[in-house]
Amino acid sequence: STLRNIVQKMPKAELHIHIEGSLEPELIFALAERNLVALNYASVDELRRAYAFTDLQSFLDIYYAGASVLLTEQDFFDMTWAYLQRAKADHVLHTEIFFDPQTHTTRGVAFSTVIDGIHRALREARARWGMSGALIMCFLRHLSEEDAFATLEQALPYRDKFIGVGLDSSERGNPPEKFARVFARCKELGLHLVAHAGEEGPPAYIETALDVLQVERIDHGVRCLEDAALTRRLARDKIPLTVCPLSNLKLRVIDKLSDHNLLQLLDAGLVATINSDDPAYFGGYMNDNFVQTFEALPLQRKHAQQLARNSFFASFLDASTKQKYL
Ligand code: ADE
Ligand code: ZN
């Protein structure tokens, strides 16, 4: 069977998906109508035409605006359910989903509304299909550490509904060390720790995410190759990178997909994975990312197997479940 077929059908885990980034323009319009929220775009097509990003910030501005239609628990369920159906179709057996509570609580939406709606969809997918999923709460790094602490406080009554914390939003000028104390507290609480680093930001941010925040995985991390010592360290310590090729293309981290460094990352012995990041905005879910990356780069069957294996190895599944996939 063709390599394309193999990458599509192989069982995989997704480890880097912002649930708000799975909100399709059609659902944005449906929820705007249901909730009587005014949009600055006249149609689905007009909204989609605005998805011409020049960098991370130009995307984030539109992404936060899109999330403004999410008001009720059912809205968060519907968004998550739509994503889980797409993930299932791409043979994703396990998914670790980011959510950005501050995007919603700053608009007056209760923390419980957000997490209950998302979590109900995860329970439904497990009950119906045996698909596993877990939540990682992200702190918005353009906001203060004090804000992050307040969010953690709001989250604690729901401690059983999420497994870890992450750090996302505008990377440049918001280094990991800004969140040193809140991550230390999260570690004490037994939460898993991850952070976006080395997407647009320098390799030094990857280092401080590891040394200061003590994260277990790096989200993106593609700029690590600019620092040979850091690259060796990531390989030696098997620190996974959750790479998102179509995101890197659409946010102009790279000019064309054939310029992507995924093969160099694998050749350097890094635990790199392929993920979708914000699939509704970047033109593709998991298999779109796999197929287009395999078309653009000289990746072979062994790389497909390695990427699938890496996705489970890098997951926060318990050791015995993980073992079954490896
Ligand atoms: N939030 C959603 N997608 C993101 C990305 N790629 N980088 C930083 N923050 C994000
Ligand atoms: Zn991301």
Topology (elements, then pairings):
Blueprint (H helix, E strand, L loop, with lengths): L2 H7 L2 E7 L6 H11 L8 H6 L6 H11 L6 H17 L2 E8 L1 H5 L5 H19 L2 E9 L4 H11 L8 E5 L11 H9 L3 E6 L5 H9 L5 E4 L7 H9 L4 E3 L1 H6 L11 H6 L4 E3 L4 H4 L3 H11 L4 H13 L5 H7 L1
Bound molecules: adenine and zinc ion (ZN).
The site of adenine has 10 residues, from loops.
Describe this structure in words.
This protein has 326 residues and is an alpha/beta fold. 49% of the residues lie in helices and 14% in strands. It contains 17 helices and eight strands. Strands 1-2-3-4-5-6-7-8 form an eight-stranded parallel beta sheet. The protein binds adenine and zinc ion. Zinc ion binds next to strand 1. One of its GO terms (molecular function) is hydrolase activity. Catalyzes the hydrolytic deamination of adenine to hypoxanthine. Plays an important role in the purine salvage pathway and in nitrogen catabolism. It catalyses: adenine + H2O + H(+) = hypoxanthine + NH4(+).
Provide keyphrases for this structure:
326 residues; alpha/beta; TIM Barrel; eight-stranded parallel beta sheet; binds adenine; binds zinc ion
Rg (CA only) = 18 Å
Task: Give the C-level CATH assignment.
Answer: Alpha Beta
Flag low-confidence runs. Answer: none
Q: Strands of the largest sheet, in order across it?
A: 1-2-3-4-5-6-7-8
Cα end-to-end separation: 22 Å
Question: Which molecules other than protein and nucleic acid are bound?
Answer: adenine, zinc ion
SS elements, strand count: 8
| CATH superfamily caption | Metal-dependent hydrolases
The percentage of residues in β strands lies in 5-15%
The biggest beta sheet is recorded as: 8 strands, parallel
Question: What best-fitting shape do the alpha-carbon axes yield?
Answer: globular
CATH fold description: TIM Barrel
Per CATH, the architecture is: Alpha-Beta Barrel
Class by alpha and beta content: alpha/beta
How many helix segments? 17
N to C succession of SSEs: HEHHHHEHHEHEHEHEHEHHEHHHH
Function: Catalyzes the hydrolytic deamination of adenine to hypoxanthine. Plays an important role in the purine salvage pathway and in nitrogen catabolism.
EC number: 3.5.4.2
Organism: Undibacterium arcticum
Binding site for substrate: 278
